[in-house]
Amino acid sequence: MADAALPAGAAGRSAGAETPLRRAWRKLRRNRAALIGGTIVLVFVLMAVLAPLLPLADPLKSNFLAIRKPPSALHWFGTDELGRDQVSRLFFGAQASLLAGIVSVLIALGVGVPVGLAAGWYGGWVDAVISRITEALLACPFLILAIALAAVLGPSLTNAMIAIGLSAVPIFIRLVRGQVISVKTEDFVEGARAVGVRDSVILFRHVAPNTLPPIVVQSTLFMAQAIILEAALSFLGLGQQPPSPSWGQMLNVAKNFMEQAPWMSVAPGAAIFLAVLGFNLLGDGLRDALDPKES
Amino acid sequence: MLALIGRRVLIAIPTLSLVSLFVFALQRALPGDPFLVIAGEERDPEVIARLREIYRMDDPIVVQFFAWLGQVVQGDFGRSLRTGEPVLNLILQKLPVTIQLATASIIIAIGIGIPAGILAARRKGTMIDYSTSALALSGLSIPNFWLGIMLILLFSVELKLLPPSGYESIFSNPWGAIERLIMPAFVLGGGLAAFIMRHTRSAMLEVLRSDYIRTARAKGLDERKVVNKHALANALVPIITLSTLLFGELLAGAVLTEQIFTIPGFGKLIVDAVFNRDYGVVQGVVLCTAIGFIFMNLVADVLYVLVNPRLRTA
Question: Is residue A89, in this structure, part of any structural domain at all?
Answer without folding.
Answer: yes
